[in-house]
Design a protein that fits this description.
The protein is an alpha+beta fold and 235 residues long. The chain has 9 helices and 4 strands, in the order αβαβαββαααααα. Helix 2 crosses helix 7 and helix 6 packs across helix 8. Bound molecules: glutathione. The site of glutathione has 12 residues, from helix 4.
Length: 235
């Protein structure tokens, strides 16, 4: 029996205008834009709904019915496996699912598939969490803490991660080689955020990572990235 999209409580708070399209619930944060950039790169039809942090939308019962971890991005594919709607959260899982659905930006099999997933996990398990802590201690509430040891610890680890990435990019255009992939889509929004919005370029001495700088510049020049970085618009 096919489950209707309307049976998902989240559709009561954010009614779909195009129920046949992917429903994305997001904001243009480094995790949110991974999905909008992927969708813009591939042209998969979707409808985006803004989850306002100012209104604490992520804590609403409707949003939590889709993601009990109350974080964006989350999505529903009305036409998932076996034609049933598929609800998903966690940006890495969403990227893998959409890449497999479209056959784009992740090899279907072979070494390249697992190398892409390896670097995606590197982003999910290390780059995102550590860069995020730099944001907290350098730009947000933790900025006023007198004890600078937490900030310095996260900045040092972020520098180390940037060095790993720099070495990987020294002989490659993109993270896994000549092919742009979901590993790049997951990683560069975080690098961009670290040195842009968080203002931590000096703290992590970003000028020492020439290969990361070059790849970030190429990433930010892609038309789909330019669009995706502002989807959904903040207001
Ligand atoms: N591991 C999760 C992390 C998601 C996440 O941290 N999202 C942030 C925005 S970048 C969020 O929704 N924050 C709202 C909150 O914590 O209340 C993913 O990659 O999807």
């Amino acid at each position: 029996m096919t489950v209707a999209l309307s049976s998902f409580p989240i559709t009561k708070k954010w009614p779909p205008r195009h129920p046949d399209r992917l429903q994305l619930y997001s904001l243009p944060t480094p995790n949110g834009v991974k999905v909008s950039i992927f969708l813009e790169e591939t042209g998969l039809p979707y409808e985006v709904h803004r989850v306002s942090f100012d209104n604490r939308d992520q804590m609403s019962p409707e949003f939590r019915s889709l993601n009990p971890n109350n974080k964006i991005p989350a999505l529903i594919d009305p036409n998932g496996p076996n034609g049933e709607p598929l609800p998903l959260f966690e940006s890495g899982a969403i990227l893998i699912y959409l890449a497999d659905k479209t056959g784009q930006l992740l090899a279907r099999d072979g070494a390249a598939r697992y190398q892409t997933l390896q670097w995606l996990m590197f982003q999910m398990g290390a780059v995102g969490p550590f860069f995020g802590q730099v944001g907290f201690f350098h730009k947000f509430a933790g900025k006023t803490y007198e004890d600078k040891r937490p900030r310095d610890r996260y900045a040092a680890e972020s520098r180390r991660l940037l060095a790993v990435l720099d070495q990987q990019l020294a002989e490659r255009s993109w993270i896994i080689g000549d092919d742009y992939s979901i590993a790049d889509i997951a990683t560069f929004p975080w690098v961009n955020n670290l040195v842009g919005f968080y203002g931590a370029a000096e703290l992590v001495r970003f000028d020492e990572f020439a290969h990361v700088q070059r790849a970030l510049k190429a990433f930010l020049a892609r038309p789909a990235v330019i669009r995706g970085l502002n989807i959904p618009p903040r207001a």
